[in-house]
């Protein structure tokens, strides 16, 4: 889980949770069903282009709006391995971490990225490499405790492992 690699899918500023997963699907709790509708109102072709391991890239305030957990669940369930942005809404950041979806704030990587670029991410080292352009950037690396949560697949599995005495 320390090293991720995927195709970049670009978005702009203020992508809110309603854009990520429209409110009409909030009665759905199955991650696969949420994934089927991820980004459909702002990017109808997203689901046909995304592959497991791909990366979302956005500018500022990604995940703003309501505090619903459905948004990061939909993103993770459709195969996105990481979201890189200039900045994230704080509640979205926490919800993403709680379900094991890694996020990195790295404005330089965002500015240099184009849709379709191949990105390689070292979460532990905070390294984002745009393999398409041969550029590397440093984001703030995840502290060990956060890496443990992400590696375990979220806060609940991480806590269960700790209670069972299994290190993550």
Overview of this structure, please?
The protein has 168 residues and is α/β, with parallel strands linked by helices. It has one domain (3-163): Alpha-Beta Barrel (Aconitase, domain 4), CATH 3.20.19. It has helices spanning 17-20, 31-36, 46-49, 70-77, 90-99, 107-112, 144-152, 155-163; strands at residues 3-10, 55-58, 82-85, 103-105, 118-122, 127-130, 135-138. Helix 4 (70-77) packs across helix 5 (90-99). It is globular and about 45 Å long.
What keywords describe this structure?
globular, 168 residues, 8 helices, alpha/beta, seven-stranded mixed beta sheet, 19% strand, Aconitase, domain 4
Outline:
By secondary structure, the chain is of the alpha/beta class.
């Amino acid at each position: 889980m320390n090293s991720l690699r995927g195709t970049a899918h670009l978005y702009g500023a203020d992508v809110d949770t309603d854009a990520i997963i429209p409110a009409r699907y909030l009665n759905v709790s199955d991650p696969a069903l949420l994934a089927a509708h991820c980004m459909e109102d702002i990017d109808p072709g997203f689901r046909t282009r995304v592959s497991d391991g791909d990366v979302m890239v956005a500018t500022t305030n990604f995940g703003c709006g309501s505090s619903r957990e459905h948004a990061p669940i939909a993103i993770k369930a459709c195969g996105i391995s990481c979201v890189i942005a200039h900045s994230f809404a704080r509640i979205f950041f926490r919800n993403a971490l709680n379900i094991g979806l890694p996020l990195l704030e790295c404005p330089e990587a965002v500015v240099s990225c184009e849709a379709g670029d191949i990105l390689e991410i070292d979460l532990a080292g905070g390294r984002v490499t745009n393999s398409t352009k041969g550029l590397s950037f440093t984001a703030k690396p995840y502290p060990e405790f956060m890496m443990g949560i992400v590696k375990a697949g979220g806060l609940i599995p991480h806590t269960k492992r700790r209670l069972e005495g299994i290190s993550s």
